[in-house]
Amino acid sequence: MEQTILMREFIREYLAVSKKSECYKKSLKNAGNHLERFSKITGLSVSTDLDEQVMEDFTYYLQDLNLMPTTIKNNINRIKYLLQKARKTGYKTNATIDDYNVPDEEAVSVFLSMREVIKIHRYSGLTMREQEMKDYFVIGCLTALRFSDYSRLQAKNFIRNKIVIKTKKTNTPVQIPMHPVVREIIAKYDKHLPSPPSLQHFNREIKIICKKAKICGKVLCERTKGRNRISQLVPKYKLISSHTARRSAATNMYLAGILPFRIMLITGHKTEKSFFRYIRISRDENVKILARHKFFAGKK
User: Is the pTM of this model over 0.85?
Assistant: First the structure.
């Protein structure tokens, strides 16, 4: 017959034999500490057979601590991980927690319009290294490649005005026509692009570059802290990262009228549902597209 054990005791037992990294074990211990404090405050004896209702109450407890949604979600996932380990060890657990999830909070993801991409491309008040990073970024903005791909382009990838590369993440071969601006950049380096920066350095510097290029429009950012919704206007350049390039390229291709399935052959999205979650189009941009449609233009 399966037996239960108090969570604090199981966590102590599991951490003593776990082969996980010290960093990960520390995160599990921290989640366990939250659960133990919750237990003391509520008077609940929390064991391995805790159910969905207890997990929901624990989530409210974490929200009352004014933790960020991602922090709350991470803590819940770590407790679920420990419960899975408890089950495999032979302790009794409650199956209702398997489907319990904390909803994701959608991050604020921006894209750069073609006008902004060209503005960045033409900006010249940069150091030589900033200029090189800017060129990499602009290539990303016009190819929809990931940083892991556009940062390792070599002369062999440039074949007759197209880029041919096997993507690093999915190992998928793709072919992308070169935009005139991309051809200009490639020619500038005689097809031999400079050594790429690290991703961490790139993400830090691209914000500075975009600030210098006056990509400073305000973006409304909303986030949840605990149970409160906080809204603030943030300069656009602060939200730009290496991945903004890929999102911008896909969105601008779509706005230019390229069919989604053709863009998906470049981005690697498997379904239109996932593709359209990726596209960033405002209501103003949407109405402009609709206005050109023959239905609204009164064309037969």
Answer: no
